[in-house]
Amino acid sequence: MLKTIVFLGLFISFNVSKLLSDANKPIEILLTSDNSIYEQALFGIQTSINREIHVNYLDIILAEYDSPATYFQELENKGIPLIITIGKGATRIAEENTHKIPIVFSMVSFPKGLDLESSRLCGVSMDVPLESFFITLKDINPKSKIIYSFYSNIEGEFSSEEGEHFDLKNKMYFKKKKSSSDS
Fold first, then answer.
1. Least crowded by CB within 10 Å, which of 23, 59, 119, 122?
2. Burial zone of 131 (CB within 10 Å; 0-12 exposed, 13-18 middle, 19+ buried)
């Protein structure tokens, strides 16, 4: 979370002129859901941005608007200078429905899997390298020899493949297994 706050601070610092010109307009923060991890990220952002913000949740937008496009069109019409998204769902829907507003995402695992291609989009991934898991596992149980990684989708498989590069380096054997929804 600290990386997210630092990155957001740097991003905002580099775009001071744009933000100062829109100083009376709030920054929109959009959360995918109200889970405790996202709420902690929101608290960190709220305490580090010294300007008015407006917080919204994806489920509220989907319930109150005919379409997400309507909500984002309202934001563009108001001249909102920046949208900060927390979570994958909020990031995807913001990118698909905005055309002018820059977006900073956070708390997104495997952002490459979103296949987002926009010059208005940047952010911080919450991916933890598998090598860190190997090292931590060896610290916890030095006798560990085999690691299993279970995945159910393409994103999970891609992330699991990273383990194949670090198992022998850490004197372990890595196996990935696809799980199905029937399991």
1. 119
2. middle
Q: Which residues of 108-129 are buried (b: 16+ CB within 10 A; e: fewer)?
A: beebeebebeeebbebbebeee
User: In one letter, which amino acid is 157?
Assistant: E
- Encode pLDDT of 105-135 as tens digits: 988 876 766 676 767 788 887 777 777 778 8
Which helix H or strand E contains 38, and what residues bound it?
A: helix 36-48
H, E, C per residue of 122-143: EEEECCCCHHHHHHHHHHHCCC
d(CA 29, CA 61): 12
| pLDDT interval class at 74 (50, 70, 90) | very high
Task: Map residue 179 onto helix, strand or coil.
Answer: coil
Residues 6 or more apart whose CB falls under 8 angstroms from that of 100 comprise 76, 120
Closest CA to 38 of 97, 86, 91: 86
| Phi, then psi, of 95 in degrees rounded to 5 | -65, -40
- Supply φ then ψ for residue 46, to 5 degrees: -60, -35
